[in-house]
Backbone:
């Protein structure tokens, strides 16, 4: 008698849509939950080497909270690759211009550093306010 187990294939995963309201929630704590949904770690058929996560829609990104003095002290850095192309901005300035990037940066740091990271981040949809354009994606019931 031969016992064998079958491996689940990429096309057999069902990708659900989750709506996450981050208004008045702490950035790091909610970013962990979003990263787990994107990876699919809560699913019983989780496989580390396959993309089995869900879609996540985040609303109220502008009202996210941070603890301590991070509002003025935390800095985000980027470099264009050209001489003199180093830019930095505080969390307060980034919240006014692009509040979506605060959450995207926090979640990206909590995802695994491999080829699946870009696919997982494509499934993350972030909106600064309460309104979003993806209402038809969620199951009625």
Residues:
């Amino acid at each position: 008698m031969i016992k064998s187990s079958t491996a689940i294939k990429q096309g057999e995963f069902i990708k659900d849509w989750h709506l996450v309201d981050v208004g008045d929630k702490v950035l790091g704590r909610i970013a962990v939950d979003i990263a787990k949904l994107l990876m699919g770690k809560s699913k019983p058929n989780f496989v580390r080497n396959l993309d089995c996560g869900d879609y996540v829609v985040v609303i109220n990104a502008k009202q996210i909270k941070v603890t301590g003095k991070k509002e003025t002290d935390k800095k985000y850095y980027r470099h264009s690759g050209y001489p003199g192309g180093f830019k930095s901005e505080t969390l307060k300035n980034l919240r006014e211009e692009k509040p979506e990037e605060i959450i995207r940066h926090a979640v990206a740091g909590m995802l695994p550093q491999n080829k699946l990271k870009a696919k997982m981040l494509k499934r993350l949809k972030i909106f600064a306010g309460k309104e979003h354009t993806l209402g038809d994606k969620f199951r009625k019931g």
In short: Residues 10 and 95 are 37 Å apart (CA to CA). The chain has a mean pLDDT of 93. The first strand starts at residue 17 and ends at 21. The domain at 15-130 is CATH 3.90.1180.10 (Ribosomal Protein L13p; Chain: A;).
